[in-house]
Amino acid sequence: MGLKKYEGLIIDTHNDTMMKAVDPVTQVPCIDIGQDTNFNIDLTKMEKGNVNIAYFAAFTEDYGDVETNNHRILASINALFHVEKMNPGRFAVAKSFSQMMHDITLGKRIGVATIEGAYSINAANMAGLMKQYADLHVKAIAPVWNHSNLLGEGTYSKFVDETDSSNGLTTLGEAFVKTMSELNMMVDVSHMNEATFWDVVKHTKRPIIASHSGASGIKSHLRNLKDDQLLAIRNTGGVVNVVFCRYFLGDEFADLSVLIDHIEYIAALIGDEHVGLGSDFDGATMPVKLEDISRVPEIITGLRERNFSENAIANIMGNNNLRLLKSFDTQDQNRKRLELLTVPVILSNAQTIEWSLDSDMVGIITESITFLWDGILLKCHYNDLDKKIVAQSNFIIKQRYHVATIEFKDQENNIYFCTSISELK
């Protein structure tokens, strides 16, 4: 008699694959994961491992200024959409819950856009830029990575210049957490110190996730969560996704059994309804013999050997995170998305941005147009003669990737918008 077949969904809530899929200098997509690669994740490996959904992080540390940090984030998001463009029959970026589930029935792998380290955010751009990230279908954001920033303290409790930080979430960070809730994005607590963690718990009313963390009760490590933190995530209705990094789980010899130890420990403490998988593929050293995403089904075998029920296994492998994706799916019914065939173009003076409009849009354009550029409202005008919106920046645009949004009302006060990534070539 053969092994029982697993019929449920498999979801992995963290990887750094897009960071490796772009050119390290230009950040332009250079490797299509629709092709076979030496990465921990590509589409063939996802298909072999029957992994339905993977969260692809747009990672940034603090590169010194918000324009550069935003450029790095947008480069990874752009690369994720590039995978969809190059592999339309095999891969789709998650845009809505219903679209995602439909694409799964078609056999497609799903990529969920997330951000690891919101170093692009400051007081001037926060409200606008977060709205633009939501428009780009970002579903979860970790406010900090290892180094602290304007939002709060990271894992190291130090800024990138090695000076000490203090006091957890800042006032701006508190507003950030509130705004994430309003925009239906999950707060990821995997990279923050304890003070920031508890401030997030205090200031959110929505489920939170740890996208890739282990249990401190098994392995005392700066990146792992203590029992009271695990319980706090459960109490929000959230999910703790167990990281695969062998050094967070144990030591250089950590294997599948050690990963199962962490899953078993956390499930015993907070219930299997609040545990998931967050590998950190392409960003960490994987457990022995769990080298890539094609091997993920071996976790099912390991859980069965520990006498987990089939229902518990389905929860851990995917259902818990699917529940959160559905609960954060509320759409803004007051804004109607337009998919333009064009993208904003930065002119040679590096301060003027033009956005040509599709001819079928012209009839609904009014004078009440707003233009948002990297979270900042710019002055703009609509040139009726050549059907272009022209905006003027008060600074020289230096980095390659930026995000632009146009928004306007028609004569019946319906709100239309389009958000697009722009590339300085």
UniProtKB/TrEMBL annotation:
Assigned keywords, A-Z: Dipeptidase, Hydrolase, Protease
The organism's place on the tree of life at top rank: Bacteria
InterPro entries, A to Z: Metal_Hydrolase, Pept_M19
Record-linked Pfam families: Peptidase_M19
GO molecular function: dipeptidase activity
Its EC number(s): 3.4.13.-
Protein name stated in the entry: Membrane dipeptidase
Organism: Fusibacter bizertensis
